[in-house]
Design a protein that fits this description.
The chain is about 55% helix and about 10% strand. One of its GO terms (molecular function) is DNA binding.
Length: about 375
């Protein structure tokens, strides 16, 4: 009994320590994280918070650390060793990158069924089949990063590991899929906004979320969920020939996925998105703190910010209300949709990237290529 009490106390203590860094962690799984993560894991995360690591990066590290700990327990019966031996890293690759055709004749190929069921039962595995190579590489990279923060090197640069990954990727090629199957272009956005036609708090909020996320360059759901009034700056109205000036607003993004702490990325809203945002904030009486908040059953506006997953849920719910297939869209579709719409309207790529804040021309141009290849001149040389 004493041993069980000590274990419970340790879990409760880790849960309380996680509360101290709740602002940058996926706290909807706090209790689960407290069970999975070790004291050393928690201390590493606290150190990274104190070092000023970006919120999104820290969330990704925490999510991958939780997965790695869950996989390690399922695969070896114990918490991850630090540093990780080469054999364990090779086992991780073998469990996650495998050939589905060979699996049909060799049930021991790939991740063992018992480990698969264990991780699936905990909610760590959802899709069927091998992992995407990019996911495996990211988790190994984060594993290496966490090892270095603990002052260990590990075997992440070993030739055997690099060769294993190359051979595994070659043996089980996968087509890279977009994060959102369909882009939320201007046409799709209009259908979503049509479902927000009333002056109810929920319609005003969702309309503002959709318009701000799209018009500000396709902001990530974490950026929309974490948006605060203090990030908004009123700008001089934009003159319009033969019309009333358009309201303008600056959004100071601060540290983002692609910037450092010293940079302050700024994007701008003009016209209808500003009006939609002002309408929501006025109706909800928001003058400080989080901009987008939950709304209770009786119309009570929460003081807490929406979590990023709720932004995704809003988009899917509005897609269903618009008669669209919810599974075909996600919050990332607003980001890809912004660039796709910019391409459709002939906006130069550099100008669109100034608003989307993409750093990679290759990544941003892929949306342009997708939007214009079929009808472009290169595809019509013999017409």
């Amino acid at each position: 009994m004493a041993k069980a009490k000590t274990s419970l106390t340790a879990v409760e203590r880790r849960a309380e320590e996680l509360d101290t860094i709740a602002a940058v962690l996926p706290m909807e799984r706090r209790d689960e994280l407290a069970e999975l993560l070790t004291d050393q894991d928690i201390e590493t995360l606290r150190h990274l918070v104190n070092q000023g690591m970006g919120d999104n990066t820290l969330r990704a590290l925490t999510s991958d650390l939780a997965y790695l700990e869950a996989w390690g327990l399922a695969a070896t019966g114990r918490s991850l060793p630090w540093p990780a031996p080469e054999a364990l890293l090779l086992k991780f690759v073998a469990h996650h990158l495998w050939d589905p055709q060979r699996r049909e004749t060799d049930p021991d190929h790939g991740m063992p069924a018992a480990i698969d069921q264990n991780l699936r039962g905990q909610g760590f595995l959802k899709s069927v089949g091998p992992h995407a190579p990019a996911t495996v590489r990211r988790r190994l990279a984060n594993w290496s990063t966490l090892s270095k923060w603990r002052r260990f090197d590990g075997a992440f640069a070993s030739p055997a590991l690099k060769l294993a990954i190359r051979l595994a990727v070659r043996a089980a090629p996968r087509q890279r899929l977009r994060k959102s199957a369909k882009a939320v272009t201007g046409e799709v956005l209009a259908k979503l906004l049509a479902t927000c036609a009333t002056d109810s708090l929920r319609d005003l909020r969702d309309r503002a979320i959709l318009m701000v996320a799209f018009a500000s360059g396709g902001r990530r759901r974490s950026e929309i969920a974490g948006l605060r009034v203090e990030q908004l700056t009123l700008e001089p109205p934009i003159p319009v020939e033969n019309g009333a000036p358009l309201p303008s607003l600056a959004i100071h993004l601060g540290r983002t996925k692609t910037t450092t702490g010293e940079q302050d990325d700024v994007v701008y809203l003009t016209g209808r998105p500003v009006e939609a945002l002002n309408a929501w904030m006025t109706a909800a009486k928001i003058d400080s703190g989080s901009v987008f908040r939950g709304i209770g059953r009786w119309g009570t506006v929460s003081r807490r910010a929406l979590d990023p997953q709720s932004v995704n849920a809003v988009l899917k719910q509005r897609a269903a209300m618009a008669g669209l297939e919810p599974s075909a869209f996600s919050a990332h579709g607003l980001r890809s949709g912004y660039l796709t719409e910019a391409a459709n309207r002939g906006i130069p790529l550099p100008e669109a990237m100034e608003q989307s804040r993409h750093r990679s021309v290759q990544q941003a141009s892929s949306y342009y290529n997708h939007a214009t290849r079929r009808s472009g001149k290169a595809a019509r040389l013999l017409t």
